[in-house]
């Protein structure tokens, strides 16, 4: 692998150390003469290429992400982020500033989804450029495809799929789409995907698309990524909608829970059942 990577980089890789096992392949630290890179290696080359494209789009939007060094075949080589120790409160302030800037990015077409299909973990996120109705997009492009995938994997009972289908038919009754406009979302903001360097926060492993910015916030609450300091800082830039906690949080947590049902099953199915009961579905 060192030889193949050296050839792809056009530099002699002196050392290659396994960092961790990712969801579609292995992640390494590669050392060249005076530089270190993060290297993702996978036979799922199309997904690596999509990740590179998402990172480049975020970079062009002036959102701090690792620079893409090369994306070639089974290799995605990225800038290594030099992280620093920082107290939790300072981290939350920096994360809120970065996500506020991200959520201020919209598109000229006022559409939901994205210009190409993106990914979340090992799964494809289907996007259509013709979706201008947020509740239709959420139901047809996010919740139901992942619910059917979970069912096909034997991880979701048919009666739960049917209940989700009934919910998606009536999403327009539960969400006032007149108050929503498309925001660029990272899509997977758990603590491992936000790094902190001297200059502030940096996002990795994106799952981008345009959606309601509060979808991102519901995800953050679901996994306890950030706490009160984050939300206080974020609200200075983007006030929360009146129905955020009551209506949007449970509705918007369904999709990420389904992703985790597909990945891990078990306790996430019980969590999904709890949300459906809360929504009286």
Short description:
Helices cover 45% and strands 17% of the residues.
Instruction: Sketch the major β-sheet.
Output: 5 strands, antiparallel
The radius of gyration computed from the alpha-carbon positions, rounded to a whole number of angstroms, is 19 Å
Give the overall silhouette.
Answer: globular
Q: Percent range for helical residues?
A: 40-55%
CATH topology of the largest domain: Aminoglycoside 3'-phosphotransferase, Chain: A, domain 2
* Series of secondary-structure elements, N-terminal to C-terminal: HEEEHEEHEEHHHEEEEHHHH
Query: Could you give the distance between the termini?
Result: 51 Å
Uncertain spans = none
CATH superfamily of the largest domain: Aminoglycoside phosphotransferase (APH), C-terminal lobe
The largest sheet has its strands arranged as 1-2-3-5-4
Percent strand: 15-25%
Strands, total number:
11
Would you kindly provide a written description of the structure presented here, covering whatever features stand out?
The protein is an alpha+beta fold and 281 residues long. The chain has 2 domains: 2-79, 2-Layer Sandwich (Phosphorylase Kinase, domain 1); 88-278, Aminoglycoside 3'-phosphotransferase, Chain: A, domain 2, CATH 3.90.1200.10. 45% of the residues lie in helices and 17% in strands. It has 10 helices and 11 strands. It is globular, with a radius of gyration of 19 Å.
């Amino acid at each position: 692998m060192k030889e193949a990577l050296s050839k792809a980089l056009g530099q002699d890789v002196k050392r290659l150390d396994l960092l961790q096992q990712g969801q579609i392949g292995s992640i390494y630290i590669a050392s060249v003469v005076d530089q270190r890179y993060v290297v993702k290696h996978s036979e799922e080359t199309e997904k690596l290429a999509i990740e590179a494209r998402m990172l480049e789009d975020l970079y062009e939007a002036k959102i701090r992400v690792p620079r893409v060094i090369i994306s070639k075949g089974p290799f995605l080589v990225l800038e290594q982020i030099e992280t620093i120790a920082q107290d939790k409160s300072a981290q939350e302030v920096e994360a809120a500033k970065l996500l506020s800037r991200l959520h201020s990015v919209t598109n000229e077409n006022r559409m939901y989804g994205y210009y190409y299909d993106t990914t979340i973990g090992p799964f494809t996120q289907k996007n259509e450029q013709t979706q201008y109705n947020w509740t239709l997009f959420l139901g047809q492009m996010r919740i139901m495809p992942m619910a059917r995938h979970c069912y096909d994997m034997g991880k979701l009972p048919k009666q739960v799929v049917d209940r989700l289908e009934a919910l998606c038919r009536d999403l327009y009754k539960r969400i006032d789409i007149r108050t929503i406009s498309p925001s660029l979302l990272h899509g997977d903001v758990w603590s491992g995907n936000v790094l902190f360097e001297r200059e502030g926060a940096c996002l990795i492993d994106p799952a981008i698309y345009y959606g309601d910015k509060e979808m991102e916030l519901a995800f953050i609450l679901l996994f306890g990524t950030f706490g009160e300091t984050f939300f206080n800082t974020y609200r200075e830039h983007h006030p929360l909608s009146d129905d955020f906690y009551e209506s949007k949080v449970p509705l918007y947590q369904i999709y990420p829970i389904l992703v985790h049902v597909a990945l891990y099953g078990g306790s996430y199915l019980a969590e999904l059942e709890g949300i459906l009961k809360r929504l009286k579905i």
